[in-house]
């Protein structure tokens, strides 16, 4: 289906959680850059990031029409870009989170950015990260590369889905939950003053689901006393309504592309029907 698909071989989920925690905190830095030097936005628009297949990492929104910060996953480097060209890079392998922020902030003055405007405050809460980045640096290198493969595959899948449905938002990574996702508004479907929508994407794992997973959810939340049967994945009914395809249900399987594609298309159709009758 996708010629440039990365085959996902199953990895230890405990180590995956360690790598996910490390990357989740590191990706806040490019988000901080765009948020600090862009207009205030009530929905944190400038804090989200795009997946870059070239960098195999996450790149911020443009600042001053030229500048971006990005996190390269496998090499675990933070880079400052001008017109998509690297002008400076910061090796996070032997750094701590606080030192990485200070080093990056301190370097910005040479490029015309006022350091005092850079803010490391987050408009949301995430679990604290106590370890030095370098503590698990080399030990987690293969897992960071693994996440680069997972996010790269997700970029392919979400691009495919955007061509199947009209009116799908650009897919972006949201640093609060570290998911790469898109949103689809149903045509002429309104609940009160809210447009009905379906969201889909990939999460590297969280407190509710420890292993990585694909998901499809919807809004507003329909009442589901007896969820309809689904062919792939499982229902999530706590906190949000939707379906989940856990990592363990596709990793190391030869037909994983087909499983994931069919999971998305079938879940989207099930939730569309639910919303049309809600």
Percent of residues in helices comes to 25-40%
Distance between the termini: 34 Å
- The H/E string reads HHEEEEEHHEEEEEEH
Low-confidence stretches: none
Number of strands: 11
Average pLDDT number:
92
Q: Mind describing the biggest β-sheet?
A: 6 strands, antiparallel
Report the structural category: alpha+beta
Number of helices: 5
- Radius of gyration in whole Å, from Cα? 19 Å
What count of domains describes the coordinates?
A: 2
Shape: globular
* Beta-strand content estimate: 15-25%
Side-by-side strand order of the widest sheet: 6-7-8-9-11-10
Can you put this structure into words, describing what you see?
By secondary structure, this protein is an alpha+beta fold. It folds into 2 domains: 13-139; 142-276, no CATH class. The chain is 28% helix and 24% strand. The protein is built from 5 helices and 11 strands. The chain has helices spanning 13-26, 28-36, 97-107, 141-164, 256-276, and strands at residues 50-52, 57-59, 67-72, 77-82, 85-91, 172-174, 179-191, 194-203, 213-219, 234-236, 242-246. The strands form 2 sheets. The protein has a 6-stranded antiparallel β-sheet. A 5-stranded antiparallel β-sheet has the order 1-2-3-4-5, with helices on one face. Helix 1 crosses helix 4. The longest helix is centred in the middle third of the chain and has 24 residues, at 141-164.
